[in-house]
Amino acid sequence: MFNSTIPKSLKVAVAAGFISALAFSPLALAAEQGKENLDASASKEVTGEVVDMMCYVDHNAMGDKHAGCAAKCIKGGGPVGIVSDGKAYLLVGDHKPMNDQLAEYAGKTITVKGKMAERGGVAMLENAEIVKK
User: Fold this and answer.
1) Answer CATH for 44-130 from 2.30.300, 2.40.50, 1.20.1540, 3.30.70
2) Where are the domains of the chain?
3) Contacts of 129 (CB under 8 A, 6+ apart)
4) 80 Cβ partners below 8 Å, 6+ apart?
5) For the chain, N or C: smaller number of CB within 10 Å?
6) pLDDT digits (tens, 9 = 90+) for 19-40
């Protein structure tokens, strides 16, 4: 068709490079977006009310009226969480419970920071720590 002086081997190499670039660019883009998502979820701050998860999940117990009961349940080793904008997060320290630190805040609003994890409808802040303001 075309009377070209470009060697056939060069044409094949250029075509192969172009096809490879098209084929792998979506994979590279997806890998980069996944990296950004991991970085974004690395640390999250949540401000909300400290609750004992047993009473909160069982009968929506929270607020000043329940603070004494919540503190007792948290001190007793019950799961502790924070409720923010209608979403509850289980709070876990550095691979151990945070009950001793959080019992005094039962029924109060605080800010915590930690790594967000969510599975099967359960949200958790792990390696959580209280943010002092």
Assistant:
1) 2.40.50
2) 1-41, 44-130
3) 93, 112, 113, 114
4) 50, 51, 52, 53, 74, 90, 91, 97, 98, 99, 102, 103
5) N
6) 655 555 555 555 555 544 445 4
pTM of the full predicted structure? 0.69
Give me the helices (H) in 8-89, please. Answer: 8-41, 53-59, 67-75
Token digits of residue 67: 């603070």
Q: Which residues contact 81 (CB under 8 A, 6 or more apart)?
A: 50, 51, 52, 53, 56, 88, 89, 90, 91
State whether residue 62 is helix, strand or coil: coil
